[in-house]
């Protein structure tokens, strides 16, 4: 039986409360978890930040520490996601992954689109996930709903403010920006007939 894993990064400001989930830390995200009284199943990173040096006392009992050199090809988040998937967690939710440095955000998006399509990227007010072919439901949890094709794709949108019917979209299209669930509807339906798209949801103005 699979269960969710919340991966807490150093940029995390709000730790999601997901029923039945375990928690793990990316680098200094370990301190964020322990300050909230949450014991992670593992912590992964180089722990080289001079602002948040790792003290052995910071590692809770039962937390497996995966320490890597600072000079490496993979990011700390990538290594943590790989470990989570190896352990069988699903979904893996990477928090704070859309905050901070833009190059880190882009790296996290590439981690989603090119390596781990089941990954969910979140911060306090936003979420990104990948939509493969199939029927997907969106709710009013987020106000703004945008879609960006990763390849030539065919989609239909139902119960949305701006509906579509078997519309072809490609990587250059941006008119699928900033949609929302239609008035008097509780949920919207995204039917991906073919292709892959990024679903970007936000509550920011």
Tally of distinct domains: 2
pLDDT averaged over residues: 93
Amount of helix: 10-25%
β-strand amount: 25-35%
Order of strands across the main sheet: 4-3-2-1-5-6-7-13-9
Biggest sheet: strands, sense, closure? 9 strands, mixed
- Rounded to the nearest angstrom, the distance between the terminal CA atoms is 39 Å
Q: Which topology of the largest domain does CATH recognise?
A: Rossmann fold
Please, what is the oligomeric state?
single chain
Q: What's the CATH H-level superfamily name of the largest domain?
A: Thiamin pyrophosphokinase, catalytic domain
What Rg, in angstroms, do the CA atoms define?
A: 18 Å
Low-confidence stretches: none
In total, the number of strands is 13
Total of DSSP H or I helical runs spanning 4+ residues: 3
SS content category: alpha/beta
Order of helices and strands: EEHEEHEHEEEEEEEE
**CATH class label of the largest domain:** Alpha Beta
The global form is: elongated
CATH architecture of the largest domain: 3-Layer(aba) Sandwich
InterPro entries: Thi_PPkinase, TPK, TPK_catalytic, TPK_catalytic_sf
Domain Thiamin pyrophosphokinase catalytic: 24-114
EC number: 2.7.6.2
GO molecular function, one term: thiamine diphosphokinase activity
